[in-house]
Design brief:
Length: about 260
Amino acid sequence: MIRSLAELFMHEGSAVERAAIVSDVRGGAYFEGFLNVLDELEGQGVSHRLIFLECDDQTLLTRYQETRRRHPLAPNGTVEEGIAAERALLSPIGERADLVIDTGGLTTAMLRRKLADELLPVETPARLAVTFTSFGHKHGPPRDADLAFDVRFLPNPHYEESLRAHTGLEPEVVRLHRPRRRPAGVYGHVIPLLDYLLPQYVREGKAHLLVAIGCTGGRHRSVAVAEHLAHHYRESGDYMVDVAHRDISKPPRSE
C-alpha cells in the first residue's frame, strides 16, 4: 500500500503535498516487508521520514489497564508478554527511525504539538507553546524534554509527616515553596534563563517547547515549581502555556 500511495502522490496531477501513514503492531507479518519498502522509497528519491512512538513498560501497562483491552500479540496471555513481543517485533523499525518520540507523560494535545513542531514547516511566526511538566527521577527522566531542571536540592516535604500525603498542588506544600522562601533563589535564576532562551526558540521557528522539572518522586517540589513557572509565563501573555504532572498520581514511597 505504501508503495502504491507513493506512486499516486508523485503523479503529475496529484494535489497531495504531504501525507502520513500510520501503522502499529497489528500489521503483524506485513512488517517483514516494511523495511524493504523504505529502501525502495530511498532508491526512488521519495522524500520521507520514519517516526517511531514509544514509552516505558509501566506506562503501557497503565494504558492497557485503563482501557481494559488485551494486547493484540497476547490475546490469551498477559499484557507484559504482549509488550515484550511487540518490542522484539518493532525493534528493527525503531532502529531505522528518523525521530523517536517518548509519549510517556504526554497528553494528546502535547503529542500533537510535538509532531507539528517536528514535521510541519513554520510558515509564519506564531506564539511559542510551552509545556512545563513535573517528573520524578526515580521513575526515569522524560526523554524528549527540551530543557530539564533538577530541584532535588529544595526542602523535601516527603520527610514531613504532615505533608507526605499531599502534593505540590495543595496549599500546605505550596506555602513551603513560595518565592519568599528558599525557592526564590531557584526562580531568581531559572526565570531569567528562560526569559533569555524562549525568544531564541521563537526566532528559530520552534512551535513547542517541553520544560521538565524533576524532583525525587515527582509529587511535591517539582509540581510546585512547575506550577509557579507556568503561572508566571501564562500571566506574561507571550506564550501559550500548559502544565502537566507525569508522576503526581503515583503513590509516595520511601525516598
